Amino acid sequence: MASDKTDESKEVEQTKSSSKKMILIIALAVMLAGGGGFFAYTKFFQKDGEAHAKAPVSLPVIQELETFLVNLSDPGGKRYLKLTMKAKLSGKELQEEFAARTFEIRDAVIMLLSSKEFEEIAKPEDKATLKQEIMYQINRLVQRGQVQDIYFTEFLVQ
How many CB atoms lie within 10 A of CB 144? Predict the structure, then answer.
């Protein structure tokens, strides 16, 4: 009887040790799979994400122009236009040129605005056309880039 108990206790110990080994093997396999997955992710996928994260966000270069106050070309000359705008530039180089050529740019815009009659700038589509004309006038003067868009921040006709 004593030998039966020892045989049973040996079997229980062997079962416990084999189940411990099995748990250890499974835990080791899970850790290896996790480590391999992490390595593969950082090796193959992380670089794409880092490239997007490291790419500088290109903010537009905006140049504000001083307010324009001109008489419109209406018969009787009773109306005037007060216009403040910002120009979206293609780059920093153009911003430097813009500063150097401010007097030429202002002259071209003043000549354009003062040639307009109220009926030519009254409707929203007329204002869109005016923006295009202003861009054209500025772009023909500058050489280091282009004005990409014009934004009116104040538009008053009286």
Answer: 15
Average pLDDT over residues 51-65: 77
Give the closest residue to 132 by CA, choosing from 85, 97, 96. Answer: 85
- Whether the CB-CB separation of 120 and 103 falls below 8 Å is answered with no
User: How far is residue 133 from each of residues 31, 58, 89, 109, measured CA to CA in Å?
Assistant: 67, 27, 16, 9
Identify the pLDDT of residue 43: 74
| Cα separation values, 154 from 12, 65, 88, 157, Å | 90, 11, 16, 10
pLDDT band at 70 (very low <50, low <70, confident <90, very high): very high
Q: What is the pLDDT of residues 126-155, one digit of tens each?
A: 999 999 999 999 999 999 999 999 999 999
Joined tokens for residue 125 = 């589509």
- Around 17, how many Cα atoms within 13 Å sit in the side-chain half-sphere? 6
**Cα end-to-end distance, the chain, whole Å:** 117
